[in-house]
Amino acid sequence: xxxxxxxxxxxxxxxxxxxxxxxxxxxxxxxxxxxxxxxxxxxxxxxxxxxxxxxxxxxxxxxxxxxxxxxxxxxxxxxxxxxxxxxxxxxxxxxxxxxxxxxxxxxxxxxxxxxxxxxxxxxxxxxxxxxxxxxx
Length: 136
Prior knowledge:
Elements: H1 2-10, H2 16-26, H3 29-32, H4 36-39, H5 43-47, H6 63-118, H7 124-135
């Protein structure tokens, strides 16, 4: 930190980007969470997106490690199976709840269509006759 503060005072890094780079180099890699190669990377490589390599887990060595992996994977399979079963049950319950609502909605639509066709009379005498019939 003192190196950074002293370097900034000497005028080595006058721009904000240069000061950030200086600070990044001054902070130990363990404290910043970055590796030493990331601290010394150039500005150009810092601007390009970094792709993290996915490393596969080393194969288990020995009979006990294989048995442990077998039990772990079996447990995961059980969890996935129960999740799948719960999802199917939820879908079934949703369908059972939805069915009467859809039927009722269809009835309402049919009733609305019937009322709309009854009210579509543009003949003045027919409207007067309907009004007189509904009053009686």
